[in-house]
Amino acid sequence: MLVWSNSVFFGLLLLASSHVTAHGESWQQHQSAGFQAFDTRDYAGAMERFQLALVVAHEQEAAPAALGSLLENLAATYLAAGKPRNALAAILRWDRLLMEWGTEPWAQRQAVVRDRLTAALVDVMARLESQAEPEARAAAAAAVSARSGPYALHLESTKTEGNIESAWTELQADYPLQLADKGLLVKEVEVEDQGTFYRILGTSFADSADAKRVCRELRDQGQYCAVLRLD
Fold it and tell me: Which of 43, 172, 221, 226 suits a disulfide with 81, CB 3.0-4.6 Å?
């Protein structure tokens, strides 16, 4: 059980309405189902429920404290499931929320938990890094490439190569339902009279229909998106 969040969770049930939305259930119901899935080590089910809870909470304009609790649960689940990059994306999104509401007592309480989860994440990533031999990293990269379909989503462009990783992490945090399980691909392009740009692409789309569907969902939320075929 996510013992670090239960005390927050039960107090937050009163902070947002429990109206049923177009997704069929309230965010509280999705979160409760997420806890149940986590208890049975069904981490995939828990991740899906917590992600849906975030979407519905935004639709219901839930209190910031509730959003923070949901991001906490999502980050903890990613960490338990062995997905440190996804956990990092959730923590960064959570961190931005806590910075905005830093003077509130709930934000200060959640910041303590955030720091604890961040420390655990750093330990996991350091352990994985120390265990990964160059050959293993190359094999993993080849496996990811092999799984990637011929279609990708162009999401952003930047002139600064050092901004790529942080931009991708923020995109995954902002749109977890669409991008949490996608890979990052960077394409360097030369634009006349403007110089070099780095296109940030989300990969692993086997067919154009799936890529177009996800792209449409992102555009509906205000995110630039264009479907590209990788040659």
Answer: 43
Q: Which amino acid is at 161?
A: E
| Spatial separation of the C-alpha atoms in residues 154 and 168, rounded to whole Å | 11
Domain coordinates in residue numbering, the chain: 3-129, 143-229
CA distance 222 to 231: 28
User: Is 73 in a helix, a strand, or coil?
Assistant: helix
Mean pLDDT of 65-75: 92
* Residue 65 CA: distances (Å) to CA of 8, 105, 201: 9, 10, 32
Amino acid symbol at 95: D
Whether 5 and 69 have beta carbons less than 8 Å apart is answered as yes
**Structure tokens of 69?**
């609790």
Are the folds of 3-129 and 143-229 the same? no
Confirm or reject CATH 3.90.79.10 for domain 3-129, answering yes or no: no
Helix, strand, coil % over all residues of the chain, rounded to 5? 65, 15, 25
Each residue of 169-221: pLDDT tens digit?
A: 889 888 888 887 788 889 999 888 888 999 999 987 888 898 999 999 999 88
SS3 147: helix
Residue recorded with tokens 């394409």: 187
Range 143-229: architecture per CATH: 2-Layer Sandwich (3.30)
**Contact by Cβ (8 Å): 230, 151:** yes
